[in-house]
Amino acid sequence: AQKVTQAQTEISVVEKEDVTLDCVYETRDTTYYLFWYKQPPSGELVFLIRRNSFDEQNEISGRYSWNFQKSTSSFNFTITASQVVDSAVYFCALSEAREGGGADGLTFGKGTHLIIQP
Amino acid sequence: NAGVTQTPKFRILKIGQSMTLQCTQDMNHNYMYWYRQDPGMGLKLIYYSVGAGITDKGEVPNGYNVSRSTTEDFPLRLELAAPSQTSVYFCASRHRSRGNSPLHFGNGTRLTVT
Protein backbone atom coordinates (compact mmCIF):
# COMPACT_ATOMS: atom_id res chain seq x y z
CA ALA A 1 0.00 0.00 0.00
CA GLN A 2 1.09 3.54 -0.68
CA LYS A 3 1.65 6.09 2.03
CA VAL A 4 2.76 9.71 2.13
CA THR A 5 3.94 11.30 5.36
CA GLN A 6 4.27 15.01 5.93
CA ALA A 7 5.46 15.12 9.51
CA GLN A 8 5.36 18.92 9.79
CA THR A 9 1.79 19.90 10.57
CA GLU A 10 2.52 23.61 10.71
CA ILE A 11 5.56 25.78 10.06
CA SER A 12 5.81 29.47 10.82
CA VAL A 13 8.69 31.62 9.57
CA VAL A 14 9.38 35.27 9.09
CA GLU A 15 9.33 36.65 5.57
CA LYS A 16 12.56 36.24 3.60
CA GLU A 17 13.61 33.16 5.52
CA ASP A 18 14.17 29.91 3.64
CA VAL A 19 11.90 27.02 4.56
CA THR A 20 11.86 23.32 3.68
CA LEU A 21 8.76 21.16 3.69
CA ASP A 22 9.42 17.46 4.18
CA CYS A 23 7.74 14.59 2.38
CA VAL A 24 8.46 10.91 2.91
CA TYR A 25 6.69 8.24 0.91
CA GLU A 26 6.22 4.49 0.87
CA THR A 27 5.49 2.34 -2.16
CA ARG A 28 6.33 -1.14 -3.36
CA ASP A 29 6.39 -0.04 -6.97
CA THR A 30 9.65 0.68 -8.76
CA THR A 31 7.96 3.21 -11.03
CA TYR A 32 5.89 5.96 -9.48
CA TYR A 33 5.21 9.68 -9.59
CA LEU A 34 5.42 12.32 -6.92
CA PHE A 35 3.56 15.60 -6.84
CA TRP A 36 3.33 18.79 -4.83
CA TYR A 37 0.16 20.86 -4.63
CA LYS A 38 -0.45 24.24 -3.02
CA GLN A 39 -3.73 25.18 -1.33
CA PRO A 40 -3.85 28.94 -0.59
CA PRO A 41 -6.37 30.39 1.88
CA SER A 42 -8.87 30.76 -0.97
CA GLY A 43 -9.11 26.96 -1.00
CA GLU A 44 -8.29 25.86 -4.53
CA LEU A 45 -5.63 23.24 -5.19
CA VAL A 46 -2.80 24.33 -7.44
CA PHE A 47 -0.43 21.86 -9.08
CA LEU A 48 3.26 22.74 -8.54
CA ILE A 49 5.40 19.87 -9.78
CA ARG A 50 5.45 16.23 -10.89
CA ARG A 51 8.51 14.02 -10.65
CA ASN A 52 8.88 10.43 -11.85
CA SER A 53 10.89 7.86 -9.95
CA PHE A 54 13.55 7.59 -12.64
CA ASP A 55 14.47 11.24 -12.53
CA GLU A 56 16.41 12.16 -9.41
CA GLN A 57 17.60 15.50 -10.65
CA ASN A 58 16.73 18.36 -8.39
CA GLU A 59 14.48 20.97 -9.89
CA ILE A 60 14.44 24.71 -9.41
CA SER A 61 11.67 27.06 -10.45
CA GLY A 62 12.27 30.59 -9.30
CA ARG A 63 12.24 30.59 -5.50
CA TYR A 64 10.98 26.99 -5.40
CA SER A 65 13.20 23.93 -5.47
CA TRP A 66 12.60 20.23 -4.99
CA ASN A 67 15.02 17.61 -3.72
CA PHE A 68 14.15 14.02 -4.66
CA GLN A 69 16.18 11.33 -2.92
CA LYS A 70 15.15 7.81 -3.76
CA SER A 71 17.56 6.34 -1.22
CA THR A 72 15.62 7.96 1.62
CA SER A 73 12.20 7.95 -0.11
CA SER A 74 11.94 11.68 0.27
CA PHE A 75 10.75 14.49 -1.96
CA ASN A 76 11.34 17.72 -0.08
CA PHE A 77 10.26 21.19 -1.14
CA THR A 78 12.24 24.34 -0.36
CA ILE A 79 11.07 27.92 -0.68
CA THR A 80 13.90 30.43 -0.77
CA ALA A 81 13.38 33.97 0.47
CA SER A 82 9.80 33.24 1.51
CA GLN A 83 7.04 35.77 0.94
CA VAL A 84 3.69 36.29 2.61
CA VAL A 85 1.97 35.06 -0.57
CA ASP A 86 3.60 31.67 0.01
CA SER A 87 1.35 31.15 3.02
CA ALA A 88 -0.73 28.09 2.22
CA VAL A 89 -1.19 24.41 2.92
CA TYR A 90 1.16 22.31 0.83
CA PHE A 91 0.38 18.71 -0.06
CA CYS A 92 2.74 16.02 -1.24
CA ALA A 93 1.16 13.17 -3.21
CA LEU A 94 2.12 9.84 -4.77
CA SER A 95 0.81 7.90 -7.74
CA GLU A 96 1.87 4.51 -8.94
CA ALA A 97 2.61 4.15 -12.64
CA ARG A 98 0.52 1.54 -14.31
CA GLU A 99 -0.85 0.79 -17.72
CA GLY A 100 -3.37 3.52 -18.33
CA GLY A 101 -1.66 5.91 -16.02
CA GLY A 102 -2.74 4.98 -12.52
CA ALA A 103 -6.45 5.41 -12.75
CA ASP A 104 -7.02 5.30 -9.02
CA GLY A 105 -5.73 8.77 -8.38
CA LEU A 106 -3.20 10.14 -5.97
CA THR A 107 -2.41 9.30 -2.37
CA PHE A 108 -2.02 12.55 -0.45
CA GLY A 109 -0.14 13.41 2.69
CA LYS A 110 -1.98 15.33 5.40
CA GLY A 111 -0.42 18.59 4.36
CA THR A 112 1.85 21.18 5.95
CA HIS A 113 0.39 24.54 6.86
CA LEU A 114 3.00 27.15 6.06
CA ILE A 115 2.64 30.56 7.66
CA ILE A 116 4.87 33.38 6.46
CA GLN A 117 4.83 36.29 8.87
CA PRO A 118 5.59 39.78 7.57
CA ASN B 1 -11.14 27.50 -20.47
CA ALA B 2 -13.38 26.63 -17.56
CA GLY B 3 -11.47 23.49 -16.52
CA VAL B 4 -13.26 21.62 -13.71
CA THR B 5 -16.43 23.27 -12.45
CA GLN B 6 -18.17 22.30 -9.21
CA THR B 7 -21.55 23.42 -7.96
CA PRO B 8 -22.68 24.48 -5.46
CA LYS B 9 -19.82 26.19 -3.63
CA PHE B 10 -21.54 25.95 -0.25
CA ARG B 11 -24.42 23.92 1.11
CA ILE B 12 -25.99 23.25 4.48
CA LEU B 13 -27.98 20.05 4.83
CA LYS B 14 -30.06 18.64 7.65
CA ILE B 15 -29.38 15.09 8.79
CA GLY B 16 -31.14 12.63 6.50
CA GLN B 17 -31.50 14.97 3.54
CA SER B 18 -30.03 14.10 0.18
CA MET B 19 -28.23 16.14 -2.42
CA THR B 20 -26.08 15.89 -5.52
CA LEU B 21 -22.77 17.65 -5.92
CA GLN B 22 -22.24 18.51 -9.53
CA CYS B 23 -18.93 18.30 -11.38
CA THR B 24 -18.23 18.95 -15.02
CA GLN B 25 -15.00 19.30 -17.00
CA ASP B 26 -14.40 20.62 -20.47
CA MET B 27 -10.93 19.20 -21.07
CA ASN B 28 -12.10 15.85 -22.50
CA HIS B 29 -10.35 14.03 -19.65
CA ASN B 30 -11.01 10.33 -19.31
CA TYR B 31 -10.36 10.09 -15.59
CA MET B 32 -12.43 11.85 -12.94
CA TYR B 33 -12.29 11.74 -9.16
CA TRP B 34 -14.10 12.81 -6.02
CA TYR B 35 -12.07 13.59 -2.92
CA ARG B 36 -13.08 14.85 0.48
CA GLN B 37 -10.87 17.03 2.61
CA ASP B 38 -11.21 17.08 6.38
CA PRO B 39 -9.14 19.45 8.54
CA GLY B 40 -5.64 18.10 9.12
CA MET B 41 -6.40 14.90 7.24
CA GLY B 42 -5.39 15.60 3.67
CA LEU B 43 -7.54 14.43 0.80
CA LYS B 44 -9.19 11.04 0.69
CA LEU B 45 -10.54 9.43 -2.46
CA ILE B 46 -14.26 8.69 -2.46
CA TYR B 47 -14.93 7.42 -5.99
CA TYR B 48 -13.28 7.57 -9.36
CA SER B 49 -14.13 6.91 -12.98
CA VAL B 50 -11.96 5.94 -15.92
CA GLY B 51 -14.59 6.78 -18.52
CA ALA B 52 -18.28 7.07 -19.25
CA GLY B 53 -20.20 4.19 -17.71
CA ILE B 54 -17.32 3.04 -15.49
CA THR B 55 -16.95 3.93 -11.82
CA ASP B 56 -15.08 2.42 -8.91
CA LYS B 57 -14.79 2.89 -5.17
CA GLY B 58 -11.94 4.74 -3.55
CA GLU B 59 -10.82 4.74 0.05
CA VAL B 60 -13.98 6.19 1.68
CA PRO B 61 -17.04 5.38 -0.50
CA ASN B 62 -19.62 4.65 2.21
CA GLY B 63 -22.59 6.98 2.14
CA TYR B 64 -21.96 8.15 -1.42
CA ASN B 65 -22.88 7.18 -4.94
CA VAL B 66 -21.66 8.33 -8.33
CA SER B 67 -22.54 8.00 -11.97
CA ARG B 68 -20.71 8.80 -15.20
CA SER B 69 -23.12 8.98 -18.11
CA THR B 70 -20.94 11.35 -20.14
CA THR B 71 -17.24 12.13 -20.36
CA GLU B 72 -17.87 15.63 -19.03
CA ASP B 73 -20.00 15.01 -15.94
CA PHE B 74 -19.35 13.12 -12.72
CA PRO B 75 -21.97 13.91 -10.05
CA LEU B 76 -21.63 12.74 -6.44
CA ARG B 77 -24.80 11.77 -4.60
CA LEU B 78 -25.35 11.82 -0.84
CA GLU B 79 -28.53 9.88 -0.06
CA LEU B 80 -28.90 10.24 3.72
CA ALA B 81 -26.67 13.02 4.92
CA ALA B 82 -24.86 12.48 8.22
CA PRO B 83 -22.75 14.87 10.30
CA SER B 84 -19.67 12.78 9.43
CA GLN B 85 -20.10 13.94 5.84
CA THR B 86 -19.40 17.54 6.78
CA SER B 87 -16.34 18.25 4.68
CA VAL B 88 -14.96 20.04 1.66
CA TYR B 89 -15.45 18.03 -1.52
CA PHE B 90 -13.17 18.32 -4.50
CA CYS B 91 -13.76 16.99 -7.96
CA ALA B 92 -10.72 16.43 -10.17
CA SER B 93 -9.91 15.15 -13.60
CA ARG B 94 -6.91 14.21 -15.64
CA HIS B 95 -5.93 12.90 -19.00
CA ARG B 96 -5.32 9.20 -19.38
CA SER B 97 -1.61 8.81 -20.01
CA ARG B 98 1.23 6.54 -19.05
CA GLY B 99 2.97 9.50 -17.54
CA ASN B 100 0.45 10.07 -14.78
CA SER B 101 -0.55 13.56 -15.71
CA PRO B 102 -1.41 15.82 -12.77
CA LEU B 103 -4.92 16.19 -11.43
CA HIS B 104 -6.88 19.32 -12.29
CA PHE B 105 -9.12 20.27 -9.38
CA GLY B 106 -12.34 22.18 -9.13
CA ASN B 107 -12.69 24.89 -6.51
CA GLY B 108 -14.48 22.67 -4.04
CA THR B 109 -17.89 22.39 -2.38
CA ARG B 110 -18.09 23.12 1.34
CA LEU B 111 -20.82 20.95 2.85
CA THR B 112 -22.13 21.19 6.39
CA VAL B 113 -24.56 18.61 7.77
CA THR B 114 -26.38 19.63 10.96
Strand content of chain B: over 45%
Q: How big is the Rg of chain A?
A: 14 Å
List segments of chain A where confidence is low: pLDDT < 50 over at least 5 consecutive residues: none
Average pLDDT of chain B, to the nearest integer? 93
Shape of chain A: globular
- Please give the count of helices of chain A: 0
Succession of helices and strands of chain A: EEEEEEEEEEEE
Largest interface: A-B, 25 and 30 residues
Q: Using only CA atoms, what is the Rg of chain B? A: 13 Å
Average pLDDT reading of chain A: 91
Strands of chain A, total number: 12
Estimate what percentage of residues of chain A fall within beta strands: over 45%
Oligomer: heterodimer
Indicate the structural class of chain A: mainly beta
The level of helicity of chain B is under 10%
Categorize the overall geometry of chain B.
Answer: globular
List unreliable stretches of 5+ residues of chain B: none
Order of helices and strands of chain B: EEEEEEEEEEE
**What gap, in angstroms, lies between the N and C termini of chain B?**
36 Å
The level of helicity of chain A is under 10%
